Amino acid sequence: MITVTNVHKRFGSQSVLSGMNFSVGKGNIVGLLGPNGSGKTTMIRLLNGVIKPEQGTMEINGFSPATDGNVIRQMSGIVTEGAGLYHEMSGTDNLLFFSEIYGVRKGRERVDELLKEFDLYDHRHKKVGTYSTGMKKRLALAKALLHKPKILFLDEPTNGLDPDGIRDVLGYLARLNKNEQTTIIICSHVLQQLEDICHSYVFMEEGRVLAAGTRQQLDDDFLTNVMLRVETGLKLDDTSYFGHPVERIGETSLLFTLSSKGEISPLLREILKETWIHSTIIENVSLESIYFEVRRRNNE
Ligand SMILES: Nc1ncnc2c1ncn2[C@@H]1O[C@H](COP(=O)(O)OP(=O)(O)OP(=O)(O)O)[C@@H](O)[C@H]1O
Question: Where does the source fall among the domains of life (predicted)?
Answer without folding.
Answer: Bacteria
